[in-house]
């Protein structure tokens, strides 16, 4: 019977191995055959798309480089034009060097006209003729310059007196006159002709209205043809940058072009190429891919059987161990890999075994650490609770004796009142220590999950008044104004009155403590909305808290900085305890602050405290009240 089971298991293992080998063999075969079957379509499309991507990137880069060159040229033109204006405005003999600069930049004419359009100063007149502009042109150019409000403007392309395409640079002067400069097209034509590639790849430049400035089609250039209807040109005129396909009437072919614009002048720059050139190159790639694919198919078929047999058996062995571990056998390990087994799979099995051992060891260590951490937490809580109770006993005695002395229950203390003052100091110090102990005890109860609520109908305005009365002496002693800005009718809450009072007292005390003399602490309760029908805000004009210290001051025993500790004292329990109490009440606590500007504490309260924290009696509130 045992031998039959062994044979059945061995047969199952062989069946699983044969199935995996078959799958690998089929996979290798399909990986080789399917690409060859689809290669004609795939290679052409992928090669074409790759060619499109490369051309798009290259053409767009060319267009951007050309636009940068045009932008630099426009800046130089503007600088020389401004220099010529300064020379013509100088009222001195015009330096011939300025005229030479204008000629080098392509200017043919440069002058200043008065408000009536009459030339009052001419620095350059290459054609040596009068009447370079018609009155209508001058009026139009003056209007363009006036609209620019003193900036230099490049107009769109226009014909000069001889019918040749030219650009005009204009600027209105402060005295109402207008500077006019006629700019030739030689530099733009030279830049355009420098970019030529493939059979019919080229560049084209248009003005800000889509009219041709430089183009391989000379008739279009001389005609200053408006080609703004062409899609990439329309996008250039709109200030866009990108790649677009379109039909070119000039080339009578579908084109792909990278395009951009020159920000300073609004000119458009386009670098197009016929798409059929890309298709021709993609077809060549397709033929090469078919040949390589056929050779690869033969090699793949030869290797498929060998690799399938070589890989399947050791992989199945490792997989079987993984299944055992998944089933709960933490002692399972990979052993006895079949021969031959690739070195990588042997390394994988060894690493897998090490990982299983480390996981088993780590699990034990985690369980030990968790137990130790739990014991340490319990010991800390017990220590704090014991310490608090031990401190309360002598403190209660100190306060009791001080009360006897202050109230003179045993007769006069002293004629000069010195003992009475000392007794008050003892009582004050004792009450302060008792408050700290109460806070520590309350924090301990909170960490232990032992805080409970004594829920009753709670008047928020009355609780604020009670807290203000408790903190008012401290505020008077520090010279801080304490203002209650609560107005209107507040809804009654079903909450713990004692803990709500403690929250407000903690926040008011903290605000007064960190506000310098002459400052102000404002407390306000107002109706809210949604889940928070009541919102209490306490704002001070104190020293504030840096954003990096915000989380620290909300941690137990945490304060913002050492200098604060020395100046203001305290153990850093007020804000953490307040946040714990607000959370216990089912509310939300938020602190907003900026150094030197003060702090705002917000307490958002629900209509009723959570039911799972409610106690049957008032005993649970003793530590808080």
Write out key terms for the chains shown:
625 residues, alpha+beta, six-stranded antiparallel β-sheet, flat
Strand content: 15-25%
Head-to-tail CA distance between termini = 78 Å
Largest sheet, described in full?
Answer: 6 strands, antiparallel
Give the radius of gyration. Answer: 45 Å
Averaged pLDDT, please? 78
Low-pLDDT residue spans: 558-566, 616-625
Question: Which structural class do the helices and strands define?
Answer: alpha+beta
Judging from the principal axes of the Cα atoms, what is the shape? flat
The helicity comes to 40-55%
Give a written overview of the molecule:
This protein is α+β, with helices and mostly antiparallel strands. The chain is built from 14 helices and 20 strands. The chain has helices at residues 2-89, 96-104, 135-147, 186-194, 218-223, 231-237, 275-326, 343-407, 418-447, 460-478, 497-513, 550-553, 562-568, 574-584, and strands spanning 107-113, 119-125, 153-154, 158-159, 165-172, 178-183, 196-197, 201-202, 204-206, 212-214, 242-248, 253-261, 268-274, 456-458, 481-484, 493-495, 520-529, 532-540, 588-594, 598-605. The longest helix has 88 residues, at 2-89.
């Amino acid at each position: 019977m045992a031998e039959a089971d062994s044979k059945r298991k061995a047969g199952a293992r062989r069946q699983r191995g044969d199935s995996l080998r078959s799958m690998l063999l089929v996979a290798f075969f399909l990986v080789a055959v399917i690409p060859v079957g689809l290669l004609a379509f795939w290679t052409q499309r992928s090669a074409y798309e790759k060619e499109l991507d490369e051309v798009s990137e290259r053409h767009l880069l060319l267009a951007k480089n050309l636009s940068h060159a045009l932008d630099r040229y426009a800046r130089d033109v503007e600088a020389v034009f401004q220099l010529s204006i300064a020379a013509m405005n100088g009222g001195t003999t015009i330096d011939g060097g300025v005229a030479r600069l204008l000629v080098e930049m392509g200017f043919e004419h440069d002058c200043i006209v008065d408000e009536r359009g009459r030339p009052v100063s001419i620095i350059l007149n290459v054609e040596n003729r009068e009447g370079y502009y018609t009155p209508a042109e001058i009026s139009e150019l003056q209007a363009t310059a006036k609209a620019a409000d003193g900036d230099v403007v490049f107009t769109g392309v226009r014909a000069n007196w001889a019918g040749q395409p030219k650009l005009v640079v204009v600027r209105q002067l402060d005295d109402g006159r207008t500077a006019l400069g006629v700019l030739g097209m030689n530099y733009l034509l030279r830049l355009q002709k420098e970019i030529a590639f493939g059979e019919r790849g080229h560049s084209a430049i248009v003005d800000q209205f889509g009219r041709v400035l430089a183009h391989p089609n000379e008739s279009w250039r001389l005609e200053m043809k408006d080609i703004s209807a062409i899609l990439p040109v329309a996008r250039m005129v709109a200030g866009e940058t990108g790649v677009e396909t379109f039909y070119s009437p000039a080339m009578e072919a579908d084109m792909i072009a990278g395009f951009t614009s020159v920000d300073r002048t609004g000119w458009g720059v386009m670098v197009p190429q016929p798409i059929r050139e890309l298709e021709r190159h993609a077809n060549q790639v397709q033929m090469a891919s078919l040949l390589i694919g056929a050779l690869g198919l033969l090699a793949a078929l030869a290797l498929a059987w060998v690799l399938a047999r070589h890989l399947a058996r050791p992989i199945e062995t490792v997989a079987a161990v993984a299944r055992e571990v998944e089933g709960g056998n933490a002692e399972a390990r990979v052993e006895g890999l079949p021969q031959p087994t690739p070195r990588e799979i042997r390394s994988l099995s060894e690493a897998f075994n090490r990982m299983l051992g480390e996981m088993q060891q780590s699990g034990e260590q985690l369980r030990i650490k968790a137990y130790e951490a739990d014991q340490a937490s319990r010991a800390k809580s017990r220590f704090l609770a014991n310490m608090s109770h031990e401190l309360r006993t002598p403190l209660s005695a100190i306060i009791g004796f001080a009360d006897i002395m202050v109230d003179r229950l045993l007769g006069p203390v002293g004629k000069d009142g010195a003992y009475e003052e000392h007794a008050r100091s003892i009582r004050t110090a004792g009450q302060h220590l008792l408050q700290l102990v109460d806070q520590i005890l309350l924090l301990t109860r909170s960490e232990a999950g032992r805080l409970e609520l004594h829920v009753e109908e709670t008047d928020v305005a009355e609780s604020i008044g009670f807290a203000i009365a408790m903190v008012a002496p401290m505020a008077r002693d520090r010279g801080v104004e304490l203002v209650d800005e609560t107005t209107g009718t507040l809804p009654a809450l079903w909450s713990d009155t004692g803990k709500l009072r403690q929250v407000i007292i903690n926040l008011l005390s903290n605000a007064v403590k960190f506000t310098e003399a002459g400052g102000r602490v404002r407390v306000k309760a107002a109706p809210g909305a949604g889940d928070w029908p009541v919102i209490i805000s306490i704002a001070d004009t104190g020293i504030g808290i840096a954003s990096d210290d915000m989380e620290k001051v909300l941690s137990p025993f945490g304060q913002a900085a050492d200098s604060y500790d020395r100046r203001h004292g305290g153990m850093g329990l007020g804000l953490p305890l307040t946040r714990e109490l607000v959370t216990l009440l089912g509310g939300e606590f938020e602190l907003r602050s900026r150094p030197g500007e003060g702090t705002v504490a917000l307490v958002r309260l629900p209509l009723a405290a959570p039911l799972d924290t409610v106690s049957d009696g008032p005993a649970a509130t003793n530590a808080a009240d």
